[in-house]
Every structure is written in C-alpha cells, then in structure tokens.
Amino acid sequence: MASSAWRKLKKALKSKLSFLSNSTRTPIPTPTNPTTFTTENARFTTATPPPVPTSSSSSFSARLSRSFSLHSSSKKCAICLRSLRKGQGQAIFYAECSHPFHFNCIADNTKHGNLKCPICRSKWKDVPFQAPRNAPNFQRAGSLHAHVSPYNVPPVQIEAEHFSDDEVLSDVSPDQSLSSRPHAITVKTFTEYPAVSASESFSNFGVLVRILAPPLDNTLPHHRARAPIDVVTVLDVSGSMASKLILLKRAVNFIIQNLGPSDRLSIVTFSSSARRMLPLRRMSGSGREDATSVVDSISAIGGTNIVAGLKKGVQVLEERRQHNSVATIILLSDGCDTQSHNAQNRLDYLKFLPTSIFPNNNTSREESKQPTFPVYTFGFGSDHDSAAMHAISDASRGTFSFIESINILQDAFARCIGGLISIVARDVQLKVRSASPGVQILSTPSGRHKNKIFDQGHQAVIDIGDLYAEEEKEFLVFLSIPVSSAVDGEERLENTSLVEVSCFHKGSVSVDTVQVEGERVEIRRPPTLSPIDRVLCLEVDRQRNRLLVTETIAKTQRMAEMGDLKGAQALLAKQLSTLLTTASSQAGDDLCNQLEAELKETRERMETRELYERSGRAYVLSGMSSHSWQRAATRGHSTTILSQGGNSDTSFTTSYETPSMTSMVLKSQILNLAPRE
C-alpha cells in the first residue's frame, strides 16, 4: 500500500511541475534553417550567438543581440581578412580561445592538420568539420542543435611529419643508359679586335666566350634523351584566387600531361597554411591520374602564407628517399604574404625561408655544401609581391616571370617546363686561363652566375649550372694586354696568345665530369694597324650593349624605388640614344632591337608612380632576372604569338628562348585554340 501511495504522489508531483514549467517559460521557436554546431568549448552561428536558456527577457535578448552585432562588426576574419559582420551569409565560428573566424575559412584551415589558433597559436581540443553538401540532415525535430552522425564524420587528416614516401624511381634500362652519354658542348670565342699594335698596351680588351648546348638526341625517346626531374608546384589557393582557379587548374594539368614517365611531381597548396596535396609521384599511369584528381579538387579560401608553402615544398625535396638528376620548385602567387608580412620591411619575412632555396639565410661563414633548389616564381596581377618573388628566384638560381594577364598563365608554365624537360648538361663550369706572360684577367661580368678570378688574375672560373638543349650563353672576359716584347733578342712575336678556354660538365644523368677543350685565343701584333685591324667585332659589341642596358635598367629601378621617376626616365632616354649609335645596333642586330624595345617599354611603365607600382616594378624585375641568368622568362604580355593559321610570329619570341621552350609554348597556344567541351 505504501508503494502504491508513493507512486500516486510521484505522478501528481510530476504533473504539477510540468504544468508550472509550461505556463512560466517563454517558448523558443525552432529555427527554420538550423546551422548551429556546438561542442563543449566551441560554437558557430550564422548570425547571432546561441540563445541563453537562463533568461526569458526579450529586452535582455535584444541588448545581447545588439551588443554582439556591434562587437563583431568591428572584427575581421584573421584568415581571409574580410569582415565578420552579421547578415553576410557566412557562418561564424567561435574557438575555445574566443577568437572568431568564418566557418568555411577555419574548416579549410583545420582540415590541413593545423590545430592551432591563427591568432594566439593556442592548441584547440575541438575543431570544426565541414560536412559534404549532400550530407543528410540529422536535425531532430524541436532540437536547437544540429546532430551529425558520427559514422559520417571522417577524422581530421593530420599530415605526416616526414615526407619519405616518394614513389620509387624506375629502373634504368639498357636503352635508357644511353641517355647518360654526354653530348658535346660547343665553345667558341671572339676577340674585340683582330689585332693590337705591338708597341701598344690595351686595357679592358674584350674576349667573348660563347657556350652552346647540344640538341636532344633524336634517336632516343624524349624522356630518355634528357635529365629526369623532380618538380614541386607550390600553388597559391588563397581567397583572391577563386576567380582564377579554372585557368590555374588548366595550367597545372598542362604540366602534368607534358612530364615524362621518369619525372616526378608533387603538389603543395597554400593559403593561410600549407598542405602537401600529392607526394612525389611518377607521371605515368595512376600517378598522372592521381595528380589530375588532386588538381580538380583544389578550392580557394583564406590568406596568403608564401613562407609556409615554400617550406613545405622544400621539405618534400629534402626528405626524398630517392633523387632524380634535377630537382626544382615552381611557385605561383597573386598576392603578398599576409601571415609573415612586416610593414617596416616588406621583405623581412624572407629570412624565415630555408637555406636550400635562400642561401642568404646561411649564418655560417662557411659556404654551405647543401644543394640549392632553383625556384621559378610566377607572379600575376597587380597585387603580387614582385620584389619578394624576384628575390626568391634570384637567390635560388631560378627566374621570375611577371604574368600581367591570367590568360597567358599556361603559356608561361609551358615556357618554363619546356626548358626543364630538356636539360642535357649539368654543373657546367667555364674555365679561362692566361696564355702569355703579362696577360691578366681583369673582370668576368657574368650576371648572377658565380665567378671567381684567382692566381693574380691568371685564372677565372664561371659556374653556369644546368643547360637546356640548344641553350646559348655568352660571357665577356676583359683582359689587360701588355706591349709585345722581344724574346731572347729576337724580333717581336707576330701573334700573342691571350687565354685558353675550357669547359667542364656532367651529362644529363651521368655523374662523371667531362672536359671540353676550347680554343686558344690569339691576336696579331703588327707594328702598325691596317683599317681591317680596327674593325670592331659585332658579337663583342652586342654583349657590351646587353651589359650596359641591364646595368642602366637596374640603376633606374633603384631610382624609381626612391621616387625619382623623372631621373630614371632621363637615364633610360640617354642609354637608348647611346645604344642606337653602336655598330651592332646600326647593323640591325636582333638582340640590340630587343634591348631598344625593352628600354622604351621600361620608360613607359615608369611614367607615373601609380603605373610603376601596378606593373612597372614587376616588368623591370622580371627583365633583370632574365638578363642575369640569360634565360627566358615571361614578362607582361610577352609570349610566342600564334597567327590564325597556327604559325608563330618569331618577332615576338622572348629573349633567350630555346627551341624546346618555343615548341612547348606553341603546343600550349594550339591547345588553347582548340574548342573545349
């Protein structure tokens, strides 16, 4: 009986409490489009914070809503730097450290394995997950919160700490071993004048040394006739890239389709953080398919962290288990680094780059034995950091290309990859030695190629690096020539040997060094000079012009940075007048014509400060990069132009462009002309 009485009392009490609760509590309507996700320490909402169940006061709720709106409207998302204002159609995530972000931005950030707050760097215990758009709705009727089935939430993919998972290289077959057989590099020399009077000395006498790489061996498949490469593409996928993704994907897919089965490709993307999307994979079969799928999956969101992207790219190359003969990085960005930028010194963040791509960061006095990976940088649009892109490529032996229009991005990539997949000689070194007493080497201006003069001016070395098929490089060696003296009481010698030139290099695959004997450079020493002896060599003159024009443009770039645009334009005009009076220019030399056009274009892009900031700086730095390495780079709108019939207009061919580069650019142009599905 006691038990029965107790059950009746319990039932009556429960009924009374239920009645009181329903009569005093203000009902909270169920949202029509619930998008609230909560954990113990984190939450996000589309407009206002979650309702406070402890208060039923409408005035309190209104004050809370207004307070939240005022508070959030003054904030920006630290990832995409856009407003966190209410009513803009984007969900807002509040981390356990109380910092707000756009939900899409932070979800993309954490799916790359970054579990730290971008602002305070505190480590999160709970991270947001963005379910697929076609995920079923697990919202329960009457519930204030969305419930997602735990079976449909994949775990956050934490990136491996080490990248020693590169695909193994293919075994070298007997036929492929033929590709390691080095082909001859041609060395040719030219003297400034054919003769110097025996009774006179000559200071700063110019000798031109021309290095010409051999063509690809047509008896072998293309990928076996040159050095196989490991390429890491480091791609900017920040929010500003959203409208350019289609053309970016098309350009990267062009690289994928034109790498050979011995080449390997890795894909790294970066926005606010960096992620390796694809390990080093051989571009054949499934490797090419996987690379294409990765490219198709790329989306754009967040800020721009160039340093993180490059560090990740370097890590891929440094932690490889196996190495192809050549390794390089291709960096693409349309903006400035928003994560490491220092307002006082905009290039200060480059000190965080690894020494393997930025040797200037080596604090040791001893020269590092670590190999340097060339970084070929591509900056496009008016907002990219051309100074940083140039500095990175310049320090790593790469080139900087300025892409003024996104429409030529694929052509620019084609020019670069056309060179990289045609390397026929590696570690090329040019040596020059004095061949007569008193003949002294004064200087060897070689742009950014390292050079060294030693043995009291009797020897010099220029490090050229890798050469593309049929690539040509020319270097001036300036000498001091003494008066011709008699030998052992005999008459003066009719000829004087100036220098001996030789070249050393490795084959495309072989590690053995090959020596190419060059020429012994001689001049005649007559008592008096005839008119023909006074004829200037046009090859030497044109190279003098190239050095002078490059030097002038570099000087005007420094003047422009200091605000002296009028002085820069005056100096450019003076150099143009000087160029037009030279023998090689008046002879209609092609290089001099290109230098003339470059001086005029540079002057136009320095007319106003606004124009210089928008495109002038990038155009000038890209040109300096090209001249410094004597290697083709895309500048502004420059590319090989196709006529309607598909023929190339050679008048628009970029300086230093090799046949392999031209062929690849034409292939890109033809592909762009073809109708797409």
UniProtKB/TrEMBL annotation:
Record keywords, A-Z: Metal-binding, Zinc, Zinc-finger
InterPro entries, per the entry: CLCR, Vwaint_dom, VWF_A, vWFA_dom_sf, Znf_RING, Znf_RING/FYVE/PHD
Stretches with biased composition (Low complexity): 24-47
SMART domains noted in UniProt: RING, VWA
This protein's record includes keyword Magnesium: no
Pfam families xref list: VWA (PF00092), Vwaint (PF14624), zf-RING_11 (PF17123)
GO function term, MF aspect, one: zinc ion binding
Domain RING-type: 77-121
PROSITE patterns cross-referenced by the UniProt entry: VWFA, ZF_RING_2
Residue segments, region Disordered: 24-58
Residue ranges constituting the VWFA domain according to the UniProt record: 230-424
Protein's name according to its UniProt entry: RING-type domain-containing protein
Originating species: Populus trichocarpa
